[in-house]
Every structure is written in C-alpha cells, then in structure tokens.
C-alpha cells in the first residue's frame, strides 16, 4: 500500500494553497493538544515548495506548537477530571497515560524536551505536565527547545536538500511511514 506517498502528494498540493500557513499553524497547535497528525507532514512539503520561507515556516510551526502545548498544559492543570480523564477513558489510553506519568516522575522536565523533539506523542506530555503541576517556565522552555530543534531540522533538510530531497523523500515516504507505525506498535507492546 502506498498510502503515505498519496498523503505526501496531497500535502504538497496543500502546501501551495494560499492559506497554507494558516493550516500549518492550526495543525501545529492542535497536534500539541489532541490531533494525531504531526505538523512535519505539512512543514516539509511547504519548505520544499517555498525554500525562501523555510525558516519562517519553522518559526511559525514552533510558536503554534508551543502555544498548543501551553493549552494542553492548562487542560491538564485545571480541567483534568472533568475534560481530559473522560476522553482518556473513552479512547482507552489509561495505560499509556499511566506510563507518561511514570516517565514524568523519573525524568522530569527532560521528558518534555524528548517528547517535543521525537515522534513520541507530544500531546500526552503537555497534558501530563499540567496534571503533574510541573513548573510552568521549565515546561515552556523545554517545549520550545524540543519543538524548535525538530522543526528547524525538518525545514533545514528541505531547504538544503531541495528538489533532490523532495524526490528521495517521496520515494521512501512509505517506508518511513510504515516504519514509524511499526516502531509505535513495538513501543506500545514493550512499554504499554
């Protein structure tokens, strides 16, 4: 199945839309709270389509993601029981969220940085940081550094790689996509 290549081709079309930056901002914000699709899916093709705006797009993605992270933090801090807990129970994420809480206890603010940079679902850690009443300023700093590192890396790869990177990425996007799905499944089996 070439589903990821199809999604990549669609993202390239959306990247050229006149409201693409607004969509990128919205995607980046909501991904930090609830949405499952990472903003890299839009950022990469947009940086390829408009290399002269790659750094601006990385900033936009970072700022929107950190603002979404702050919103997730507030949800966890103030509205965990009435809003977040019923959602976690409805989705069957109790075990996953318990693991997130354990990681917070073991690693503290470092887990926010790691979640911000890696493909680990950042949204679980934004809400978890609020629930655990993590100090707000370290949370924001770790989020900013982790998210900026990730999104500037993506934008930079697209900026410097250009058309060759676009062709190579399109060629291997299904391998990367299914590999990520397999790693997430493996991580769930090992740590879940």
UniProtKB/TrEMBL annotation:
Matches recorded under Pfam families: VTT_dom
Keyword Transmembrane helix: yes
Membrane-spanning ranges: 20-37, 57-80, 107-124, 136-160, 172-191
Residue ranges occupied by any VTT domain in the UniProt entry: 53-159
Keywords assigned by UniProt, alphabetized: Membrane, Transmembrane, Transmembrane helix
Name the UniProt record assigns to this protein: YqaA family protein
């Amino acid at each position: 199945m070439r589903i990821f290549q199809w999604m990549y081709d669609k993202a390239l079309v959306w990247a050229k839309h006149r409201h693409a930056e607004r969509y990128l901002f919205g995607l980046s914000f909501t991904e930090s709270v609830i949405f499952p699709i990472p903003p890299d899916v839009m950022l990469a093709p947009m940086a390829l389509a408009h290399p002269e705006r790659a750094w601006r797009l990385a900033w936009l993605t970072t700022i929107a993601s950190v603002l979404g992270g702050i919103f997730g933090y507030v949800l966890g801090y103030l509205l965990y029981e009435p809003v977040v807990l019923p959602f976690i129970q409805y989705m069957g994420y109790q075990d996953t969220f318990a693991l997130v809480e354990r990681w917070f206890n073991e690693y503290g603010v470092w887990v926010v940085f790691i979640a911000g940079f890696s493909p680990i679902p950042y949204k679980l850690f934004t809400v978890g940081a609020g629930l655990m009443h993590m100090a707000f300023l370290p949370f924001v700093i770790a989020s900013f550094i982790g998210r900026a590192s990730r999104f500037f890396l993506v934008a930079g790869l697209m900026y410097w790689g250009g058309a060759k990177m676009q062709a190579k990425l399109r060629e291997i996007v299904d391998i990367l996509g299914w590999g990520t799905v397999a790693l997430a499944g493996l991580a769930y089996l090992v740590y879940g």
